[in-house]
Amino acid sequence: MSRRALMAGNWKMHMNVVEGCRLAADVARTCEGVTDRDVLLAPPYTILSEVSHVLANTSIILSSQNVCWEEKGAFTGEISPTMLQDAGASAAIVGHSERRQIFGESDELINTRVKGALSFGILVILCIGETLDEREKGRTFSVLEEQVRKGLDGVTAAQIEHVVLAYEPVWAIGTGKTASKEQAQEAHAFLRELIEKMYEKNIADRIRILYGGSVKAANVDELMAQPDIDGALVGGAALDAESFGRIINFK
Ligand code: PEP
Description:
alpha/beta, TIM Barrel
């Protein structure tokens, strides 16, 4: 089963308007003529609208880094799905490990975000991943299973078509340490089997599972050669158009 690759850049809390528009334009240039894979950029909320204008005539998907479940109301500090759409975004990262670890977002809260975003037709990139301690204690698969089952609780078979999973071992994010291609493939295969158990084979075959954790030009080719790795969620290396361009154009 061949799935269309998705190469996603998470800009985290970086880039002002000028810098972000320049980076988006440079990334768009490196994608010219690239038709066999999808590219997604997730800038901070404050520059989504400006970046959406830069990407207007491209096929690059614009994403936020989080999303609220309600359309409007007393949710200080949150951004609703329709606000994102108004700013030109059609996707949202949910459950990033920085949200889980620094801001205490639970699987239950993340599930509420996932379901809310899906109900407004937002493409959800649901991040899951174990910490180093959990890996060393042999708990990787049980942690992943819990995060996926809770994160997707109540998500229907029709809605799952709008979900992308991102396996991001916490110990590999921003640390320069990448999971080996074997470790990543093993986790991705586990996740695909889990989706088959939760939904059906057809859905498991189609769902895209991205790898994230210090992806760079030097390791993207071997990661993307793994049968269950369908793309990458890239942090640091997505802040530079040349390195992200090389990642997008993996061989
Ligand atoms: C991320 O932010 O999701 C990420 C994987 O970061 P980095 O590529 O910098 O490890």
